[in-house]
Amino acid sequence: MRVVSGKWKPLILYFVAQGGPTRYGELRRAVRDVSDKVLIQQLKELEADGLVKRTDYKEVPPRVDYSLTPLGHSLAQALVPLCTWGTEHMAEVSRVFAERATWTRRGRQSTG
Amino acid sequence: MRVVSGKWKPLILYFVAQGGPTRYGELRRAVRDVSDKVLIQQLKELEADGLVKRTDYKEVPPRVDYSLTPLGHSLAQALVPLCTWGTEHMAEVSRVFAERATWTRRGRQSTG
DNA sequence: TTGAGTACTTACCAAAAGGTGCATACTTGT
DNA sequence: ACAAGTATGCACCTTTTGGTAAGTACTCAA
Questions:
Q1: In sequence order, what are the residues at sequence separation of 6 or more whose Cβ sits closer than 8 angstroms to the Cβ of residue B89?
Q2: Is residue A109 part of a domain?
Q3: Rounded to whole angstroms, how far apart are CA atoms B47 and B42?
Q4: Which of A33, A45, B26, B83 has the fewest CB neighbours in a 10 Å radius?
Q5: Is the pLDDT of residue B100 over 80?
Q6: What is the CATH classification number for the domain harbouring B75?
Q7: What is the C-alpha separation between A80 and B72, in angstroms, rounded?
Q8: Please, are residues A3 and B85 in contact by the beta-carbon 8 Å criterion?
Q9: A109 touches chain B (CB under 8 A)
Q10: Is residue B109 part of a domain?
Q11: Cβ-proximal residues to A60 (8 Å cutoff; 6+ apart), any chain
């Protein structure tokens, strides 16, 4: 749980798993709404945990890409059923979530 | 991801899945190291998300138990591979983690 | 010379998450 | 009378997480 917890980590794993080695800029555009700081941060953590590999081509202008390690691949596999669950039950889950979001703003409910 | 994120939620799901309807006190002792406040809080969220069902027997002294809804069961299923992954790669992952925990305290590394 | 693109880093800030300790209302055991 | 067990609630605080805005060193195009 510790390794995947991070607002954007599952999404990062998803994109890197899909596209093979992925450049930083591509990830940045793919993930959308993530800031540089956080994206870098999560990539560093994934790298430190041995899930992704960072390759620096030492070119100028800079070129770097990220790919999954074998460990990362196995994790991506293990996440598939969860991803499927999310997709299948998205409607069900986000419906109750939407309801909550409504009354959460103005006080407690009175569901007797 | 939103539904399972919470320091103790996976563990709660695990215990409730294992033992069938589980009383609050049992959970409390099973999960260990969780505070009342947080345990209750996570249970309420799981309930609000439709994953667990709370049954209050209206007795005195109070008796309440928690069980999985069908949705909760399906989620527990989807978590199995991830759990397995965690178990299988625990050594690998926690080794790098331990190393990091060491130098993280005294400054950056210089892995050239 | 200005602007855009590359892959980051840093300082600062806000929100979320989790933890501690105390309170409740009632019963059972000593 | 007093402590312990039952399932919570509340006020307060710390830690963790994520976000914003700016800066870096360098190249290419206008």
A1: A71, A74, A75
A2: no
A3: 8
A4: A33
A5: no
A6: 1.10.10.10
A7: 17
A8: no
A9: no
A10: no
A11: none
How many whole angstroms separate alpha carbon A21 and alpha carbon B70?
39
Q: Do B100 and A3 touch (CB under 8 A)?
A: no
Q: How far is A28 from chain B (nearest CA, A)?
A: 20
Q: Is residue B14 domain-resident?
A: yes
ipTM: 0.87
Structure-derived torsion over alpha carbons of residues A57, A58, A61, A67, reported in degrees to the nearest 10: 30
Q: What is the pLDDT of residue B112?
A: 28
- B76 in any annotated domain: yes
Tokens for A33, please give them.
Answer: 């709404």
Judge whether B15 and B8 are in contact, CB under 8 Å. no
DSSP assignment letter at A10: H
Q: Against a cut of 0.80, is the pTM above it?
A: yes
**Cα Rg of chain A (Å, integer):** 18
Query: Which nucleotide is closest, CA of A7 to its C1'?
Result: D18
Q: What residues make up the domain containing B87?
A: 9-104
Task: Tell me the helix, strand and coil percentages in chain B, rounded to 5.
Answer: 60, 10, 30
Cβ pair B97, A3 in contact under 8 A: no
Of A50, A78, A89, the CB nearest to B81: A78
Distance from C-alpha of B109 to C-alpha of B25, rounded to nearest angstrom? 45
